[in-house]
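The passage that follows is intended for readers who have already worked through the single-chain material. We present the inputs for a multi-component assembly, then the predicted structure in tokenized form, and finally a short commentary. You are encouraged to pause after the input and sketch how you expect the pieces to fit together before reading on.
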Amino acid sequence: DAGVTQSPTHLIKTRGQQVTLRCSPISGHKSVSWYQQVLGQGPQFIFQYYEKEERGRGNFPDRFSARQFPNYSSELNVNALLLGDSALYLCASRPEQALGTEQFFGPGTRLTVL
Amino acid sequence: DAKTTQPPSMDCAEGRAANLPCNHSTISGNEYVYWYRQIHSQGPQYIIHGLKNNETNEMASLIITEDRKSSTLILPHATLRDTAVYYCIVRVASGTYKYIFGTGTRLKVLA
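Having made your guess, compare it with the prediction:
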């Protein structure tokens, strides 16, 4: 079975631009989460979506937004890019909100803001 | 969610067991312990998780102390491919499904 897929793999933008990152969860997984990983640090939680509804939001500005589609794929949007938004953006999926189940991460999208 | 404390780095000889400790002294009764690893900026890879009992799978063993305030991930026969950053994560078993990552332990397996 295919794992979590993300696109694009790499992206270069300039300050002030907007970017959209895409994630396809593992087939049958209904929950998608987004994380930001700055170089040298652990991933930081941005959003969680389950059944197309936002179920959690991390400490990120309103420039960050996301949505989940009926097929459970998801997009992360970042507006007015700053240099500090340069990071690896990770998507993770899990089957449902069941207790104790693990989530599986995709390979990430490397965003560079110049 | 409880915070975790891990040593920043460890070395292990190839073929020997790697024992990675994690302190989670503020863990609550319904919080699970998860272990992931990340190899060179790839996505984190799930290893194992547990609540109270020790767990074992094809990758590793997880030993959780009786008071649940610490745990140890054991890689029984470390190989060079096990060189990675290992994250210990504690999260509540309900509500927003989010992981709070620390800085992890950078394990280097030496030939």
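Commentary: Chain B has a mean pLDDT of 91. The beta strands of chain B are 9-13, 18-23, 31-38, 45-50, 55-56, 61-64, 70-75, 84-92, 105-110. How closely did your sketch match?
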